[in-house]
C-alpha cells in the first residue's frame, strides 16, 4: 500500500489478503481510498548472496524470478464501512481441536452458526487455509467435515478461515478462524534411501567401518525410530551393523581369494512396531592386495626334436596369480651351465633355442625358471627332453664274417647272427637286415639269418633303417658260409602209432609195425635198428630190431594196465650215432575174465520181524569193463543154520 493508509489501520499480505489492523470508527471516517501496488518481478539491482564457501560448509542460494512486463502495477482499493450490526454474527463450536491423521472421511470437525439482522439465509464457506481441499463446510448447516484423508507427514495443522455470508446485495460477510492440529499415527514403514548399496573394503584390513546405510521413517517421534540388523549373507559373522545409525563394519580381516564379494541383506525395522520394516541389499566388494605369490599353471615337461633350428620357440612358461590387477611378471633362467642352449624372454616367458641340439650328446636338460612380481619370487624346474631324429646310419660290428656250418635237414636253424647298431633311438634305431642279392638258400630277419645249403657261399648282408634304402642309412657286411656234411638221424614215417590188442592175446602176437628212413649218403650211416626206449611196463612187449614189428612179450591184464605209452627209437651207425624217436600207444581191450564179487556178506535182522521185512541189501562189483560188468543176477543157494 503506497498511500491512503496513514494511520496504519489496514494491512495487506504478500498473497493479497486485505485485513483490518485496528478498530475503526465509521462516524469519524466512513471512506478510505488506498493505493495498492503489486510487483511481479524482483529488483535485479539487488545484491544477493549465491555462494558461501568455507572450510566447514557450502551454502548455495538461488532466486527464481519472472520478468513480467510491466514490472509494476497499481490499483485503487475503496473501503466503505457499514454499521457493524449489519454483518453476520458468528458462533464457532469446535468438535475436534486435534485430529488424528487416520480419522475417517466424514468426521465432524466443527459447527459454524451465524445470524444476520440484514438479510438471511446465511451461507458458509471456507475462505482460506483449506489446503488441498481436505475439509468441507456445508453451506447451509455450517458443519465442517473431513472431506479427504489426512496425512500428518504432508501437513501438521490447518488454519481454516470460515466465512459466513448473508443474502444481501451486496452480500456482507463475517469471518472466524478455526485452527486444527493433526496428530501422528504410525502409518509409515521405514524406507531405505537406496534399493542397493555398493560398498568396497580392502582385504587383510583390520576390523573397521567401511559403509553406511540409511532408512527413513516419515512418522514422528518414537514411530520414526529405526533399528538395523543383518538378516542374510553373513553366515560367518564377518560383518556387523550398528543398530542405531546403520554403520557397517567388518569383524575380521577378509581374504579376496577366498570370497571376493558378499551380498548382505540389511533390515530396517521400527522400534515401536518391528512388523513395519524394509530391506535393502548391500553388495560388498573385497578389493585386492598383492598378498599372493604367482604360481605356475603346470609342471613343465617340454619335448623338442634335435633338428630344431636356433631361434625357434619351443614353449611358453605361464603363471597365474590369485591377486587381481596388473602385477608385472618377469621371467629368468637360473642355471650354472653356460652352454645351456635355451633362452627365456623376460616379459613373455617364451623359451627359445639358441644353440644346435644333438640328442646323442645330450638327451635332456633340466633348468630352473624364476618369476618375479612386485612382491614375490617363485621358481620351478623345467625339463626339456630332446627327441631323436634319424640322423645316424646303422653300423655292423664286423665288416666280414666267416662261419663253418654242418649240413642239417631241420628247418630255420640258426647259422649266424650278424649285429649292427644305430646311435639313434626308438623307431629311428630299428634295423632291418637284408641279403643282397636275394638268395633262395638263405633268409634273414631283422636281427638274425637262418641258412640252409649244401654249398659253399658268400653272402652280402645289408643293415638299414626302417624305410627306403639310401646310401646314407645303410651298412653292409660279407658273410662267408662253408657247409659240411653231418650224420642225419633216421626219421619215422609217423610221429605217433596207435594200436589195440585183446588182454587174452597169446605171447608173440603182433601188435603194430613201425618204419623209418635215414637219408644219409653214406651207406653205413643210413643203416639203423629199432628198440623200445621207455613205457614197456613188466616187459609186456618186444620189438624186432630190423623189421620194427612190436609183439606181445608176456601175459596182458587190462585190470592191471589198460594203456601202454611206448617210446620207440631208431638208431643209425653214424659217428656219432643219430637217433630218431616215435610214440606207440597200445590200448588193451577187455575180455570177461573176472567173476563178480559180493561187497558185503554179513547182515543182521531182529527176531520176530514180520514176513516181507528186508533183511539185507546185497551189492556186487566186477573189475571188467562194460559190457563185461553188470547188471548182476542174484540167486539164493542155501541157508546155513
Descriptive labels:
single chain; 641 residues; mainly beta; four-stranded antiparallel sheet; disulfide bond; 1 helix; Immunoglobulin-like; glycoprotein
Overview of the structural elements:
- With 641 residues, this protein is mainly beta.
- The chain has a four-stranded antiparallel sheet, with no helix packed on it. The protein has a four-stranded mixed sheet with strand order 8-14-13-10, with no helix packed on it.
- Strand 4 and strand 5 (58-60) form a beta hairpin.
- The longest helix has 4 residues, at 523-526.
- The model is unreliable at 44-74 and 449-456 (pLDDT under 50).
Number of helices: 1
Major sheet details: 4 strands, antiparallel
**Low-confidence parts, pLDDT < 50 over ≥5 residues?**
44-74, 449-456
Estimate the mean pLDDT confidence: 80
Strand order across the biggest sheet? Answer: 7-9-12-11
Q: Please report the total strand number as a whole number.
A: 52
Pairing-aware structural class of the strands and helices?
mainly beta
Distance between the termini: 174 Å
Tell me the β content.
Answer: 35-45%
Radius of gyration (CA) equals: 66 Å
Fourth CATH level, the homologous superfamily of the largest domain = Cadherins
Classify the helix fraction into a percent range: under 10%
CATH architecture of the largest domain: Sandwich
What is the top-level CATH class of the largest domain? Mainly Beta
Taken together, the total number of domains comes to 6
CATH topology name of the largest domain, in short, is Immunoglobulin-like
Amino acid at each position: 500500500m503506497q498511500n491512503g493508509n496513514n494511520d496504519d489501520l489496514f494491512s495487506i499480505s504478500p498473497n493479497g489478503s486485505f485485513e483490518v489492523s485496528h478498530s475503526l470508527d465509521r462516524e469519524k471516517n466512513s471512506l478510505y481510498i488506498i493505493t495498492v501496488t503489486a510487483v511481479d518481478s524482483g529488483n535485479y539491482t539487488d545484491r544477493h548472496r549465491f555462494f558461501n564457501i568455507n572450510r566447514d560448509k557450502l551454502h548455495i542460494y538461488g532466486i527464481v524470478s519472472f520478468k513480467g512486463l510491466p514490472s509494476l502495477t497499481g490499483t485503487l482499493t475503496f473501503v466503505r464501512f457499514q454499521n457493524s450490526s449489519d454483518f453476520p454474527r458468528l458462533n464457532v463450536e469446535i468438535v475436534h481441536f486435534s485430529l488424528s491423521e487416520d480419522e475417517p472421511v466424514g468426521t465432524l470437525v466443527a459447527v459454524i452458526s451465524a445470524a444476520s439482522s440484514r438479510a438471511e439465509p446465511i451461507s458458509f464457506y471456507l475462505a482460506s487455509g483449506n489446503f488441498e481441499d481436505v475439509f468441507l463446510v456445508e453451506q447451509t448447516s455450517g458443519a465442517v467435515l473431513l472431506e479427504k484423508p489426512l496425512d500428518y507427514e504432508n501437513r501438521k495443522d490447518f488454519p481454516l478461515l470460515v466465512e459466513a455470508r448473508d443474502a444481501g446485495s451486496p452480500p456482507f460477510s463475517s469471518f472466524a478462524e478455526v485452527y486444527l492440529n493433526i496428530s501422528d499415527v504410525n502409518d509409515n514403514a521405514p524406507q531405505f534411501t537406496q534399493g542397493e548399496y555398493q560398498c568396497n573394503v580392502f582385504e587383510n584390513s583390520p576390523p573397521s567401518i567401511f559403509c553406511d546405510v540409511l532408512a527413513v521413517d516419515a512418522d514422528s517421534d518414537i514411530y520414526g525410530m529405526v533399528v538395523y540388523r543383518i538378516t542374510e549373507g553373513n553366515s560367518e559373522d564377518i560383518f556387523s551393523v550398528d543398530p542405531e545409525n546403520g554403520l557397517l563394519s567388518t569383524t575380521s580381516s577378509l581374504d579376496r581369494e577366498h570370497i571376493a564379494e558378499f551380498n548382505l541383506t540389511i533390515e530396517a525395522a521400527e522400534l515401536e512396531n518391528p512388523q513395519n520394516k524394509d530391506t535393502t541389499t548391500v553388495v560388498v566388494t573385497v578389493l585386492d592386495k598383492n598378498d599372493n605369490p604367482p604360481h605356475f599353471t603346470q609342471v613343465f615337461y617340454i619335448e623338442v626334436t634335435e633338428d630344431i633350428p636356433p631361434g625357434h620357440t619351443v614353449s611358453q612358461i605361464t603363471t597365474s596369480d590369485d591377486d587381481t590387477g596388473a602385477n608385472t611378471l618377469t621371467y629368468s633362467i637360473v642355471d650354472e651351465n653356460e652352454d645351456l642352449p635355451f633362452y627365456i624372454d623376460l616379459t613373455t616367458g617364451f623359451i627359445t633355442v639358441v644353440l644346435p641340439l644333438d640328442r646323442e650328446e645330450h638327451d635332456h636338460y633340466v633348468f630352473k625358471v624364476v618369476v618375479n612380481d612386485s612382491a614375490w619370487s617363485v621358481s620351478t624346474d623345467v625339463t626339456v627332453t630332446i627327441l631323436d631324429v634319424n640322423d645316424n646310419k646303422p653300423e655292423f660290428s664286423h665288416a666280414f664274417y666267416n662261419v663253418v656250418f654242418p649240413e642239417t635237414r631241420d628247418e630255420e636253424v640258426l647259422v649266424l647272427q650278424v649285429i649292427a647298431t644305430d646311435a639313434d633311438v626308438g623307431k629311428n634305431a630299428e634295423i632291418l637286415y637284408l641279403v643282397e642279392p636275394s638268395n633262395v638258400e638263405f633268409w634273414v630277419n631283422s636281427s638274425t639269418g637262418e641258412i640252409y645249403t649244401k654249398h659253399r657261399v658268400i653272402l652280402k648282408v645289408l643293415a638299414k633303417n626302417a624305410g627306403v634304402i639310401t646310401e646314407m642309412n645303410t651298412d653292409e657286411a660279407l658273410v662267408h658260409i662253408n657247409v659240411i656234411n653231418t650224420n642225419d638221424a633216421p626219421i619215422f614215417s609217423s610221429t605217433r602209432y596207435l594200436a589195440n590188442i585183446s588182454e587174452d592175446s597169446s605171447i608173440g602176437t603182433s601188435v603194430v609195425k613201425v618204419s623209418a628212413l635215414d637219408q644219409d649218403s653214406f651207406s653205413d650211416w643210413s643203416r639203423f635198428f629199432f628198440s623200445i626206449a621207455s613205457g614197456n611196463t613188466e616187459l609186456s612187449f618186444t620189438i624186432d630190431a630190423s623189421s620194427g614189428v612190436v609183439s606181445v612179450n608176456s601175459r596182458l591184464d587190462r585190470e592191471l594196465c589198460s594203456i601202454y605209452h611206448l617210446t620207440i627209437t631208431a638208431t643209425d651207425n653214424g659217428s656219432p650215432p643219430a637217433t630218431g624217436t616215435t610214440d606207440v600207444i597200445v590200448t588193451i581191450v577187455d575180455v570177461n575174465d573176472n567173476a563178480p564179487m559180493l561187497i558185503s556178506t554179513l547182515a543182521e535182522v531182529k527176531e520176530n520181524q514180520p514176513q516181507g521185512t528186508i533183511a539185507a541189501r546185497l551189492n556186487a562189483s566186477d573189475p571188467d569193463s562194460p559190457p563185461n560188468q553188470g547188471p548182476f543176477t542174484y540167486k539164493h543157494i542155501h541157508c546155513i543154520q
